[in-house]
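Input (structure):
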C-alpha cells in the first residue's frame, strides 16, 4: 500500500513531485522515492507502506528490462500464482508490485484482467514517452488528476497532493449543490474541486504529447450479462462459499500483522467465521464504542468472539474527541464525509497502528451485492422503482434541507450519472449502489481514514468473482421472507448460530444526534457559522439555516444528516478558505 503521484508534460518538475510525495507521507511512511526522466517531461513519486516483502530491495524504484517504470498503490493478492506464470521475468524482489510490472511488461493492458486485487497504478513508457494509469474494478484504491491547458497532467492518490504540487484549489459550486440538495458525492469523475477529476473504477487513462484518453477496461454490466443464473441454489451456494474462502485466504498474504475491524452484524460475523475456516488464528479484532448502550455493538461482538482465541480491542470515541479529529480527517478526505461513524472508524485505525497491526479486514460489500439494505424490500415486491430510492438513507423524513439553499445555487445541481440498467429492477438498484452511490463513497471514506493512520484496509467481500456471481442470481435468492442477503444468510447458517445468521439488519449507529444537540452543539454552531461567513448569501439562506438548526437543536426531529452536511461545509472552509472565496 502506498501513496503515488506523477507529473507529465511541460509542468513536470523535481519540486512539484517532491511536494506531492511529501504530502502523501502518511500513506507510506516506510520509504519514499522520486524520479524524473532525463528528458524532463515526466516525474514519478511513491511513498511506501511495506506489507509484502519488507526488504530494502522492495523499497527502491522498479524498472522493467525495457525501461518502463511503475508506481503502485494497492495489493495484487494472487501475486504468487502470477509469478509462476511469469517465471521467465528477471525478478529481483518478492513484492507484488514487481509482479504487476512484470505482468504489464508481458501482457500489456490485458494484465489487469488477470489481477485479483485492489490498485491504482501508473506506468511511464520512455520509448513511447507516454503514461498509462489504471484503477481497480470497484475503485477501492483512489486516483485523482488535473489536466492543465498546456498539457501537463498531474495525478495523485489524494486531492490534497495535487494542491501541494501546485494545482489551484477552487471549490466547485455545482458539486456542493448536489451534495447539499440530495446528499450526492463521489459520482462519476466529478469531485468537489474545479478542474480535478477522479479516474473512474475499472478505467485506463493514457497521456501522450499533452493529450489524454480514457477508456474502460472492466465493465461490470457486460461481465454479469442479462441472463440470470438458473443453476440449483445449492450449487450456487457451494460455489459462492468456495470463492469466499479463497478470497479470505488470499487477503491474508502479508508480511505484517493482520486484524479485523469488527461490528456486530451479519457481515462481520460471516467474515470472522470464514477466517476461522481458513485457519488464520488468532487475531486482534477492533470495534469502536461510544459509551452509549443504545448504539454500541459490544454485546453482539462479544457473542461472536465467545469460544474463539481472538483478542478484542474496544476503541472508544468520546464527544470531546470529535472537534480535533473531524478537522484532521477532513485534511485527508478533502471532500464531505460520513459523520461520527467515519470518525469512529478513523480512531479504530489509529488504535490498530499503535498496536502494530498494519492491515485490517472488514465486511464491506455484501449488502451491495446481495440487496441487503432495507429499501430493497419494496423494490423486490414491486412496490417501488429504483429511481424513487434516495441517494442517502437514514431516519424518517427529509434528510436534506433544500429550502435552505438559495434558488440560483440549488439550480446548479445536476442529475446523477446514469448507467446502463438491466430489466430487473433489483439489479438496476444494485448497480446504482455499486457504481454511483453507496460503494463509491464508502470506499473513499475508508481508504482515507485507514491510510491517514498508515494502515491498509482489505475488503474480502469485494472480490470481483463474488460480485459477478451474486449479481447473476435471481431476485428471490437475494430477498426472501422479508429479508435481504438471503443466500448469504442460508450459507451463514452453516457457520453461525441462527440468532446471528437470521437476525434483522442493524445499521452501524452512533449518538451523533445526541452529541450535536448536547456536548458538540457549540462546535457544530461554530462550523456552521464559518460556512455561512464564506458562502452565506451566495449558496445558503442564513435565516433559513439558523431556523432549521434551532428546530433540530431544541429536540425536534431525529434526522441529523442535514446538520452534518453544514458541518462538513464548515470543515472544508476551515481547511481551504481561499478556495471558497473564489467560488461564485
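Output (sequence):
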Amino acid at each position: 500500500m502506498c501513496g503515488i503521484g506523477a507529473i507529465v508534460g511541460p509542468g513536470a518538475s523535481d519540486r512539484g513531485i517532491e511536494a506531492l510525495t511529501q504530502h502523501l507521507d502518511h500513506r507510506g511512511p516506510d520509504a519514499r522515492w522520486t524520479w524524473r526522466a532525463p528528458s524532463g517531461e515526466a516525474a514519478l513519486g511513491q511513498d511506501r507502506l511495506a506489507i509484502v516483502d519488507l526488504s530494502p530491495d522492495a523499497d527502491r524504484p522498479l524498472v522493467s528490462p525495457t525501461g518502463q517504470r511503475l508506481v503502485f498503490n494497492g495489493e495484487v493478492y494472487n501475486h504468487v500464482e502470477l509469478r509462476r506464470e511469469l517465471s521467465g521475468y528477471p525478478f529481483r524482489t518478492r513484492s507484488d508490485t514487481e509482479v504487476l510490472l512484470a505482468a504489464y511488461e508481458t501482457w500489456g493492458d490485458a494484465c489487469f484482467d488477470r489481477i485479483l486485487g485492489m490498485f491504482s497504478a501508473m506506468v511511464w513508457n520512455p520509448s513511447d514517452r507516454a503514461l498509462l494509469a489504471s484503477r481497480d474494478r470497484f475503485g477501492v484504491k483512489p486516483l485523482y488528476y488535473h489536466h492543465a491547458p498546456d498539457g501537463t497532467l498531474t495525478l495523485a492518490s489524494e486531492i490534497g497532493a495535487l494542491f501541494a504540487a501546485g494545482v489551484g484549489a477552487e471549490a466547485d459550486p455545482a458539486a456542493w449543490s448536489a451534495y447539499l440538495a440530495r446528499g450526492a458525492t463521489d459520482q462519476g469523475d466529478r469531485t468537489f474541486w474545479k478542474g480535478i477529476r477522479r479516474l473512474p473504477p475499472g478505467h485506463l487513462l493514457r497521456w501522450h504529447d499533452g493529450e489524454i484518453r480514457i477508456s474502460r477496461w472492466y465493465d461490470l454490466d457486460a461481465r454479469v450479462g442479462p441472463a440470470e443464473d438458473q443453476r440449483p441454489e445449492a450449487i450456487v451456494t457451494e460455489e459462492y462459499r468456495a470463492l469466499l474462502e479463497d478470497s479470505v485466504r488470499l487477503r491474508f498474504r502479508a508480511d505484517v500483522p493482520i486484524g479485523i475491524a469488527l461490528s456486530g452484524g451479519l457481515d462481520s460475523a460471516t467474515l470472522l467465521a470464514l477466517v476461522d475456516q481458513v485457519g488464520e488464528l488468532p487475531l486482534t479484532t477492533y470495534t469502536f464504542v461510544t459509551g452509549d448502550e443504545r448504539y454500541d455493538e459490544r454485546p453482539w461482538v462479544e457473542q461472536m468472539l465467545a469460544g474463539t482465541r481472538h483478542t478484542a480491542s474496544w476503541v472508544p470515541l468520546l464527544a470531546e474527541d470529535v472537534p480535533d479529529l473531524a478537522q484532521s480527517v477532513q485534511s485527508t478526505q478533502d471532500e464531505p464525509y460520513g459523520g461520527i461513524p467515519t470518525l469512529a472508524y478513523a480512531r479504530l485505525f489509529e488504535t490498530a497502528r499503535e498496536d502494530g497491526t498494519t492491515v485490517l479486514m472488514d465486511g464491506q460489500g455484501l449488502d451491495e451485492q446481495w440487496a441487503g439494505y432495507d429499501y430493497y424490500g419494496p423494490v423486490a415486491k414491486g412496490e417501488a422503482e429504483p429511481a424513487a430510492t434516495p441517494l442517502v438513507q437514514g431516519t424518517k423524513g427529509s434528510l436534506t434541507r433544500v429550502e435552505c439553499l438559495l434558488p440560483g445555487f440549488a439550480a446548479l445541481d445536476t442529475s446523477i450519472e446514469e448507467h446502463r440498467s438491466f430489466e430487473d429492477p433489483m439489479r438496476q438498484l444494485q448497480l446504482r449502489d455499486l457504481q454511483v452511490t453507496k460503494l463509491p463513497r464508502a470506499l473513499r471514506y475508508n481508504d482515507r481514514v485507514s491510510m491517514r493512520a498508515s494502515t491498509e484496509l482489505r475488503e474480502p467481500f469485494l472480490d470481483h468473482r463474488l460480485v459477478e456471481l451474486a449479481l447473476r442470481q435471481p431476485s428471490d435468492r437475494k430477498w426472501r421472507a422479508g429479508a435481504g442477503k438471503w443466500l448469504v444468510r442460508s450459507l451463514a447458517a452453516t457457520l453461525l448460530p441462527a440468532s446471528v445468521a437470521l437476525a434483522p439488519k442493524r445499521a452501524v449507529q452512533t449518538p451523533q444526534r445526541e452529541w450535536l444537540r448536547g456536548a458538540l452543539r457549540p462546535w457544530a454552531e461554530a462550523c456552521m457559522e464559518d460556512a455561512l461567513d464564506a458562502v452565506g448569501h451566495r449558496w445558503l439562506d442564513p435565516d433559513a439555516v439558523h431556523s432549521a438548526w434551532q428546530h433540530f437543536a431544541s429536540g425536534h426531529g431525529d434526522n441529523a444528516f442535514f446538520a452534518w452536511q453544514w458541518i462538513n461545509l464548515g470543515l472544508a472552509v476551515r481547511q481551504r478558505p481561499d478556495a471558497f472565496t473564489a467560488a461564485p
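Notes: The chain has a mean pLDDT of 94. The first strand starts at residue 2 and ends at 8.
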